[in-house]
Design a protein that fits this description.
The chain has about 550 residues and is an all-alpha fold. It has one domain. It has 22 helices and no strands. The longest helix has about 50 residues.
Length: about 550
């Protein structure tokens, strides 16, 4: 009898894991598709900014955006992040009314607070401009003041959809905002020319339009929750806010700290460097970091669906399945980041020149070191998510505070000495320190540390990086010879073709690094049955022919 119960339990766990792996594969597909489009449009946007506006104008915009994000993060009471935990948690328990009440309460309380923050930013814009010794910053801040409210509404709606695992709708909204931002920037540029206010105005208008559109998707999702939802009163909304307040406020503080962490480098560059070089340095630094963020496309897609999945498993008290899914997510974060990390680390100057021009090549060290820093950070994102899903979020808070303080201190000492390179050194050291803390405490509290299954993928990553470094010399020679090749005889078209050829060479190297890394993983038998299941589900969602999927499964050859 006992053996039969164990067998049934094992079958039930296997069925649950299979369902969650399918969910991760489906969600990752839509997240990845959305992220690829998002990053592609972002690249085009950054290139247009670099080619159409001065480095100073770009620097002022990103400085203003940094201030806006840091000061407005707290305005949503943490509800944005709380959605990713509490919406699937409530749904896992069948408490749909609480899900609806949480949404209504967030609109009321977070919307009011973000409007207040926007007014404060508008009135204080002149003082901020004086503090950063950049007079034009005040005009940009006033143009962006309403962004505080628009950003809160938009992120609440997309976070709610994400909590319901509506990944496709989320991807559509985020990409629509990005495309609209690009289109409005180009349109306003042709109307007003390269004026400083064009960039922030187009940015704000894109959020205004998409914030309104996001309500359409939310209403559709609410209908799918089924009948019986009642409009909650103020007291009921206050009660649900109180229930989630501790988690929400803690998460808000963490988000604020990470906002400070993410923008400390730019803020301190703007403050510590002389006024005549601060704006241009921030501009170069920001675009280098923006290019480096391409590294998180795939792992970001995994984590976006991973949090709702494990929160729902935790709500159903399925701890064993939760930890198994966590291991799979961690391995795929590593699989997906190694090739792009190696490419960004080995060819930073070439990439910056191709996308942005020679004026941005001085940010090569920033891009190269930032790639390593992001890779280190994503070694612990799964651990951070596990702790949040289990509501042991204080550890995340302590880790973020420690990392932010260390980052501020290192920036203060290293920026005057090393300039923008000092800022990225500080960021990378701090990210590594936070990663160590999160892994250690996740092991102690959740029993999820650094499993042996990831050692092989990491070793394969080191081998891949060394191979890319060995290939750098010949690759740079080929890239450098491209401008000497006459193409069509027209300067503008020649420039476009030459850049495309350079990018093609780098793209080929990236594909070779992917192939090499995959071959190393196959040789080391680093893939598990769960990895094969996720890969198969992803390929089916991408409508890859069945024959190719079967071949992939055979080649991956799981070790167990």
């Amino acid at each position: 009898m006992g053996g039969e119960q164990k067998r049934r339990g094992k079958v039930a766990r296997s069925s649950t894991l299979l369902d969650e792996e399918r969910t991760i594969a489906k969600g990752t597909f839509w997240n990845l598709a959305g992220s690829v489009i998002l990053k592609l449009v972002s690249f085009v946007y950054a290139v247009i900014l670099a080619r159409s506006f001065s480095v100073d104008d770009i620097g002022v915009f990103y400085l203003a955006l940094s201030i806006m994000y840091v000061l407005s993060i707290f305005s949503d009471l943490g509800m944005n992040g709380a959605f990713s935990r509490y919406v699937p948690f409530y749904m896992g328990r069948g408490e749909k009314q609480k899900t609806y009440t949480l949404l209504r309460a967030s609109y009321l309380f977070s919307g009011s607070l973000s409007l207040f923050f926007g007014i404060i930013l508008f009135l204080g814009s002149g003082h901020l401009a004086q503090f950063f010794k950049t007079p034009v910053l005040g005009d940009v801040m006033r143009a962006m003041a309403i962004f505080s409210l628009l950003n809160t509404i938009f992120t609440l709606n997309t976070a709610f959809l994400g909590g319901l695992k509506r990944v496709k709708e989320n991807a559509v909204l985020n990409n629509a905002q990005n495309v609209l931002k690009l289109a409005l920037t180009v349109a306003l540029y042709y109307i007003a020319g390269p004026a400083t206010v064009v960039i922030p105005l187009a940015f704000v208008l894109s959020y205004l339009i998409l914030a309104a559109l996001s309500f359409v998707y939310v209403q559709r999702s609410l209908k799918d929750l089924g009948p019986g939802l009642e409009t909650p009163g103020i007291s009921e909304q206050a009660r649900i806010v109180k229930e989630t307040m501790a988690f929400g406020i803690t998460l808000s503080i963490i988000a604020t700290i990470w906002g400070i962490f993410n923008y400390t480098d730019r803020l301190m560059l703007g403050y510590l460097l002389p006024g005549d070089v601060a704006a241009s340095t921030v501009g170069i630094y920001s675009l280098a970091v923006s290019l480096g963020s391409v590294l998180v496309i795939f792992p970001g897609a995994i984590i976006a669906i991973f949090m709702p999945v494990i929160s729902e498993l935790f709500g159903k008290s399925k701890r064993e399945e939760m930890l198994s899914v966590s291991k799979t997510a961690l391995r795929w974060c590593i699989f997906s980041t190694v090739p792009i990390t190696a490419t960004l680390f080995v060819f930073p100057g070439e990439l910056l020149q191709i996308f942005y021009g020679a004026a941005y090549v001085s940010g090569a060290t920033v891009l190269s070191v930032f790639a390593i820093g992001l890779f280190l950070r994503y070694l612990s994102v799964v651990h951070e998510t596990v702790l949040a899903a289990m509501n042991t979020i204080k550890i995340n808070l302590y880790a973020s505070i420690t990392g932010a303080l260390l980052n501020i201190a290192l920036n203060y000492f290293w920026i005057p000495i090393y300039g923008m390179n000092g800022a990225i050194y500080a960021t990378t050291v701090s990210l590594f320190f936070v990663t160590v803390l999160l892994i250690v405490y996740s092991k102690r509290i959740a029993g999820f540390g650094f499993p042996r299954e990831v050692y092989g993928p990491l070793l394969g990553g080191v081998i891949t990086l060394l191979a890319m470094l060995a290939a750098r010399g010949p690759a740079v020679s080929i890239i450098s010879s491209v401008p000497q090749i006459p193409l069509v005889g027209q300067p503008m078209l020649d420039l476009v073709f030459q850049k495309a050829l350079k990018l093609a060479v780098l793209g080929l190297l990236f594909c070779l690094s992917c192939a090499l890394y995959f071959a190393i993983l196959v040789t080391m038998r680093s893939f598990s049955k769960e990895d094969v299941s996720v890969a198969s589900g992803f390929l089916r969602r991408a409508r890859v022919p069945d024959g190719a999927i079967v071949l992939t499964e055979r080649v991956m050859g799981p070790r167990d």
